[in-house]
Every structure is written in C-alpha cells, then in structure tokens.
Amino acid sequence: MSDKPERFIDDEGLRLDGRRVDEIRPMKVEMGVLSRADGSCYLEWGNNKVLAAVYGPRELHPRRMQKPNEVLVRYKYNMASFSVEDRIRPGPSRRSTEISKVSGEAFEPVVMTQYYPGAVIDVFAEVLQADAGTRTAAINAATLALADAGIPMKGLVSACAVGKVDGQLVLDLNKPEDNYGQADLPVAMTQDGEITLLQMDGHLTPEELEEGLEMVKKGCQQILEIQREALVSRYGNEDEEGEEAEEESPEEVPEPEEEEDEERDNSFDNEESEAENSDENDVTEEDEGEEDERQ
C-alpha cells in the first residue's frame, strides 16, 4: 500500500507541513561542536540532522597525490546506516561517491587553494538523520565548518533545492515531496549568485527551470543570512570587544601623562621659587652683615 498523499498542496496554497510554496524549512545551526576537529558544524534542517567536520590544512600522504601549486580539498559525504527508516548498508556506495564528488566541486570557486600548496583539507559530512535534501544540508554545514576552521574563502556557499509537485514548483522539498514529486533540482551557489552545483531528477520545461532557479536563488539568500548569523554569534562578540578596547585605549593613555607633566611642571616651578627665595635670603643676610661691620 502506497503512502503517497492525494494532494501535496491544498486549496489555500499550503503544503503538507504547513509551508507556502516559496518557504524553506526551519534551520538550526551550532558551530564548534567537535573539539578535535579544526572546524565543525551541526545543522538541523527540518528533520535532517547533519554533522560536518574539517581537518587541515595538513600534509598530504602519499606525496604523489600532492598538488605543487594548491591544496587538495577532499569532500566525503556519508549517510549513517541508522539515518533512514530502512537501515542501509554501512560504508560508501555509488550514490555517496557521486554526491561526494559533485559536492566537493561546489567549493572550488570559493576556497583559496593557492595558500597551502602540497597540503590537504579533509571535509567530512555525516548525515545522522535523513529527510530529503541531505546533499544540500551537508553543503550548508560544510561551508560553516570550513569557515570555523579558518580556511581562506572568497565567500560562503549556500545550497537549496526546488521541485515540482501537483504540477507546481515548490522550494525545499520535504520527504513525501521528494519521494513522489515530479522533479527535484538541488542547487548550490556562492553569495554572489554563481551556481557551483546543479543537478536535476525528473522533468521541467525551460520556463519552469528558469522560474525554479529564481525560487532557489531566494532560498539560498535566506540560508546565507542564517549562515552569517551563525558566524556573527560565534565570532562577532569577540570582534566587538576588541574594537571597543581599541577605541578606549587611545583616550585613556594620554590623560595620566598630561597629569604627570603638570605635576612635574608644578614641582619645577616650586623648586625654582624656593631657589629664588633662598637666594634672596642669602643676599639680605650678606647685606646685613656688611652693615654691622661698618657700624
């Protein structure tokens, strides 16, 4: 017996989970969750739960794999055997190998690889719980993990999917929409709007494809704001405190020096006045002594 719903969108334009066609699922982000990784991120997107970790840059072995002019970025996507309802076979599969390849290529335009020639940066994305859109969720988590590791990048990469159900385009498909929909189009792009990953499963007309890309662009912009907020919440307070300290230090330093200079000037003035008084007293005493001798 099939679990396919009769309708994915009701008369009021609401989907099965209560979202509009152009809304993304709620997203929760936590960075720095792994102490032994150079950078890490835990991301929940709808019912998806993804953990990303970055190790490197570090020396690459065997040496024959080293690139003399740039760093090698290795991206590994994996779904845990318990991440889906029907337990899957643990270990790499053809699907995970394919997703690892195309997802790793999505970061090529932004990662500044020329700074670490001969080294390697390993990116691991582990899906702990799957609910449609795991490859895009993993890319979003991996982007923040790279930023948390301090890897130089030209910008962030955001990923989202658009699909077609009931003959209508919808943003960020959930599990029933992904399983029984007519099309699925996952896309990753830079913050400048450059597409770095595009795959399609199903059929879309050229007009639908153009409209879908506009929808997914808006979805990636929403995700980009969430990514920026996550970075600001982790690093923004430290930067603000540093700026405040820099602003306060120039004002506070000169004040005690001026006071010390004034005190020194006053002490010099007092010493000069005392010296003058002593000279005057000496002169008067000598005059009085001469007058006494004359008398």
TrEMBL record:
Parts forming coiled coils: none
Species whose genome carries this gene: Methanohalophilus euhalobius
Gene3D superfamilies the record matches: GHMP Kinase, N-terminal domain
Alphabetically ordered keywords of this record: Cytoplasm, Exonuclease, Exosome, Hydrolase, Nuclease, RNA-binding, rRNA processing
Family: Belongs to the RNase PH family. Rrp41 subfamily.
NCBIfam families: ECX1
Signal peptide: none
Any one GO molecular function term: RNA binding
Top EC class for this record: hydrolase
Subunit annotation: Component of the archaeal exosome complex. Forms a hexameric ring-like arrangement composed of 3 Rrp41-Rrp42 heterodimers. The hexameric ring associates with a trimer of Rrp4 and/or Csl4 subunits.
PROSITE patterns per UniProt: RIBONUCLEASE_PH (PS01277)
Annotated protein name in UniProt: Exosome complex component Rrp41
One Gene Ontology biological process: rRNA catabolic process
Ranges of compositional bias, category Acidic residues: 238-295
Domain Exoribonuclease phosphorolytic: from-to ranges: 23-152, 155-215
Region of interest called Disordered, as start-end residue ranges on this chain: 234-295
Gene Ontology cellular component terms for the protein in this record: cytoplasmic exosome (RNase complex)
Functional description taken from the UniProt entry: Catalytic component of the exosome, which is a complex involved in RNA degradation. Has 3'->5' exoribonuclease activity. Can also synthesize heteromeric RNA-tails.
Protein EC: 3.1.13.-
Subcellular locations according to the entry: Cytoplasm
Domain of life: Archaea
